[in-house]
Amino acid sequence: MKQISSQDMQSLELNILKAFKNFAQENNIIYYLCGGTLLGAIRHKGFIPWDDDIDICIPRNSYDKLIELVKEDRYIENTSYKFCLPLDDNYIYPYIKVVDTNTIVYEKDIKKEYCLGVWIDIFPLDEFPKTSPEIKKVVKKHSNYKFFNKIYVSGNLSTPLKK
User: 6-153: what fold?
Assistant: First the structure.
C-alpha cells in the first residue's frame, strides 16, 4: 500500500464525479456542486488547492430516487465506484458517499474498521419550510443534529445549473 498526494486524491475524486455525472444523467438525477467544491470550481477553476473532497447535493426527491436506484446494485456500471448509503452496516455517515473500492482512506479520528475508499459526498437538499412553526421545528431538529450535514434552500429546486 502506498500513500498518495493530495493532487492524486483530487484526480481520483474527479473521476468518481465524472462517473456519477454520467450515472445521474442516465437516470435523470438532478445534482449540484456545493460547499468548497462549488467555490473551487468558480474561484480556482477546479479544486481549492487544500480541499480534500468533493461535495454535491441533490434535491430530496432525486436523493430518494437515487437511494431506490442503487439499493440492489451499489456499483456504477463498469467501475469500482460504490454507493454507500445511510443505515448500511458499518457505515457511519448520515448521507450518501460514492467510494472508489480500489483505495483506502484512513480518516483522522475515525476507527480503521469504518474506513472507506476515496469518495465524493452526496447530501440531500431539502426545501426550507415557509411558515414560522415549521421553521422553528426544523431549526430545533437541526440544532439537535448539528453534527449531521443537512442543506436547506429557499426557492425553486427544479432548474439545475447547466454547463
Answer: Beta Polymerase; domain 2 (3.30.460)
